[in-house]
Amino acid sequence: MKHRNTFSFGCAIVLVMASTLISSHPTQAGDTPTVIDIGSRRELFVDRFLVEKLAGATLKLHAPQLAPAVSPRRPHGHYATVLRNGGKFQFYYRGDKDPKVTWKTHGIEAYHDGEVTLYAESNDAIQWKTPKLGLFEHASFPAGNIVSMDEFLVNHNFTPFIDTKPGVPANEKYKALGGLAFQPHQKDVRTKRGPGGLKAYVSPDGIHWKKLREEAVVPEAWGKYFDSQNYAFWSPSEQCYVCYFRRFIKGYRGIARTTSKDFVNWTQFVEMRANLPNEHLYTPCTQPYYRAPHIYIALPTRFMVKRGAATDILLMSTRGGNRFDREFTQSFIRPGIGSQGWANRANYAAIGIHQTSPAEMSLFLTGGRRYTLRIDGFVSVNAPLAGGQLVTKLLKFTGDKLEINYSTSAAGQVLVEIQDADGKPIPGFTLADCKPIYGDHIARTVEWKAETDVSSLAGKSIRLHFEMSDADLFSLRFHDKKMSQ
After folding, report:
1. CB environment 26-36: b (16+ within 10 A), e (fewer)
2. What are 374-387's pLDDT values in tens digits?
3. Residue spans of alpha helices (H) in 166-256
4. What is the DSSP letter of 113?
5. Strands 88-96, 65-67: parallel, antiparallel or unpaired by DSSP?
6. What one-character DSSP code corresponds to residue 77?
7. Last residue of a domain, one of 342, 376, 410
8. Is residue 326 classed as helix, strand or coil in its secondary structure?
9. Are 200 and 177 in contact (CB under 8 A)?
10. Which domain holds residue 422?
């Protein structure tokens, strides 16, 4: 039997997505079954949220493909962030005034005082330029692309995001968290330099930053020790700010979560406990997926202490609350051929998954590496040539078209049937009525006898039944024809 790991633990900050569930799971005969209201949201198959039954089909993890590197190559270190603001991409990454100064050779004060946050811009997320900003000057960075300097501990992992909360002031359009927690043996430095923790920053443009307040907004005591990339974002589905941060859990590097309404006051953290036994997860790298922001994609770094600190990248997902889904436990991005990828802590994914061509999106890794996937292409419902079926749970939707992201072989196809709440095919929308779907499209509207309008079924409880052969189904959505792609 296929091994599946899903972790769920009760806590005070779990937010029930009332717009998603419109009734409770049945506990006895006669109870009303659960109906999932997906509205016009795009749904991916990174978890089994929509899956009622798979027969002859499986969920398949797709491996990102190594693509030409970004130019010039960056980041060289860890904890990078790639943002997109309209047609402009913004790259934030760590630099060192003197790379020869390390915490081992010169102590943590000199090491962290020597860290800066660097900035680059691009129109395509592949070719980058370093603008001379004129904000900070240092001989090691003649391009003048420093956006933060002399912020003790903060520049180790300064991680910004674009705040999409409605009504956010223009001068706080960008927000960021950065900082570390002192370890017990560093108490003398803490006494001298003040407490650590995650400190908050705001900016109108992602270039000119100011501290939101002097004190840390996420307290030092939570961190143990925040020495990772700790990313926050505004969640439209949860209607709050969410932060996933690194924390030691029972001796292993793991992930915790906290939420806030105002970016200053944060709820008591919850340990996500996503680790497998004896597993270190070095970075949370958890972010809303840009085409389905109610789904958070996590690309954590798995850290192998006893294998020379080798690292690789995993794929997890969550829909909020205190639960990560680990449908897949195998590596998402392996270290690769050659010694470079197997070096100490050589593989970290940057925050940021962005479309870089009409059919592809890019992921960015340490050393300027770039990997690509088809859009929505993390996981598919996969059927062999012999055929397979997917039946969804009960759904209700809004809109008048059903759009799918799929791929078939030359011999394969996909058929779609809409069933009523009792599992009976709805006349006009049966498998026999469906126009065979084959090819490879990011967005294809399903037709039944040349009819695409499903608005007569909007708001009703239905199931989708897919019959597939040599095919992959990556995502689906109901939408109005006039809605943007």
Report:
1. eeeeeeeeebb
2. 999 999 999 999 99
3. 187-193
4. H
5. unpaired
6. S
7. 376
8. strand
9. yes
10. 35-62+380-479
Q: Which residues are CB-contacts of 208 (< 8 A; sequence separation ≥ 6)? A: 135, 147
- How many residues comprise the chain? 485
Using CB atoms within 10 Å of the CB of residue 173, give its burial: 0 to 12 exposed, 13 to 18 middle, 19+ buried: middle
Mark out the alpha helices in 30-151 (DSSP H runs).
103-113
pLDDT tens, 112-170?
A: 999 999 999 999 999 999 999 999 999 999 999 999 999 999 999 999 999 999 999 99
pLDDT, tens digit, 9 for 90 and up, residues 259-274: 999 999 999 999 998 9
Burial of 297 per CB tally in 10 Å (0-12, 13-18, 19+): buried
Bridge-based pairing state of the strands 395-397 and 36-39: parallel
How many distinct structural domains can be found in the chain? 2
Q: What is the spatial distance between Cα 433 and Cα 187, in angstroms, rounded to a whole number?
A: 72
**Residue 403 in tokens:** 């759009």
Please report the DSSP string for 253-264 in residue order.
EEEEEEEESSSS
Question: Can you give the CATH number for the domain in which 174 is found?
Answer: 2.115.10.20
Structure-token pair, residue 51: 């899956």
CATH of the domain at 474: 2.60.120.260
Mean pLDDT computed over 220-239: 96
Least confident of 2-16, 25-39, 193-207: 2-16
Given a contact cutoff of 8 angstroms between Cβ atoms, the answer to whether 232 and 296 are in contact is no
Distance CA 103, CA 112 (A): 8
Read off the pTM: 0.92
